[in-house]
Amino acid sequence: MGLGDEPRDPADSSGEVRIGVFGGTFDPIHRGHLEVARAAARAADLEQVLLVPAGRPWLRESEPAASPQQRLEMTRLAARDDSLLDVSDVDVVRDGPTYSVDTLLDLRERYGQGAVFVLILGADSALTMDQWSRGDELSGLCEVLVIGRPGETWPSDLPPSHPASRAKYVKGPMLQVSATDLRERLAAGADVSDSLVAAVTDYIRENGLYRAQ
Ligand code: ATP
Questions:
Q1: Which among 157, 195, 162 has a CA at the least distance from the CA of 33?
Q2: Is the distance from the beta carbon of residue 36 to the nearest atom of ligand 1 less than 6 Å?
């Protein structure tokens, strides 16, 4: 369902719509991502969470295995049965490396001034915020919500200069799943369907993704 299909709560007189923005490589999108999105919606009172596959993630050591269009398609399949979730292609259609500040500027154009954006980050991503391009501009564009991830302890003593020091932190579902691990297991021929939405498992098989080279 798209934003605006539901009648607004008449008790909410602010006119603001709170929208979560959850970017990722999503190579492939897995149940950890979906549970993070749902936990974020509860923690930050979000009406909708936009899943935003990156076009060209720039902080990674290697290129994604699946193409931007394939990762976008898998994300759409993963989101289609949950009315909380929607998918945006803003980062796939933009040329150049994917920077979150551009994501938020593009979304502001699409959604207008009535939207309040909440940037959702796993703890590992949030800790890299001090290396992000134009990361200092983010505070004027969105709230930031950090969700815990197994293996990452969230420091209570981040220096005030770190952009994540102003973020809200919630522990979240703490699911031990990562796309890197899933790609390795798929290449070894393992069954990882427990960690994926069924339509994504089918898409990976039909398109021959993540097979050993
Ligand atoms: P990879 O292993 O290839 O890095 P990933 O599983 O971390 O992939 P990404 O698409 O890189 O997935 O992550 C998108 C966002 O989701 C990031 O903010 C990341 O921190 C967060 N994330 C991914 N998996 C989890 C998880 N299990 N728990 C909490 N956050 C997660």
A1: 195
A2: yes
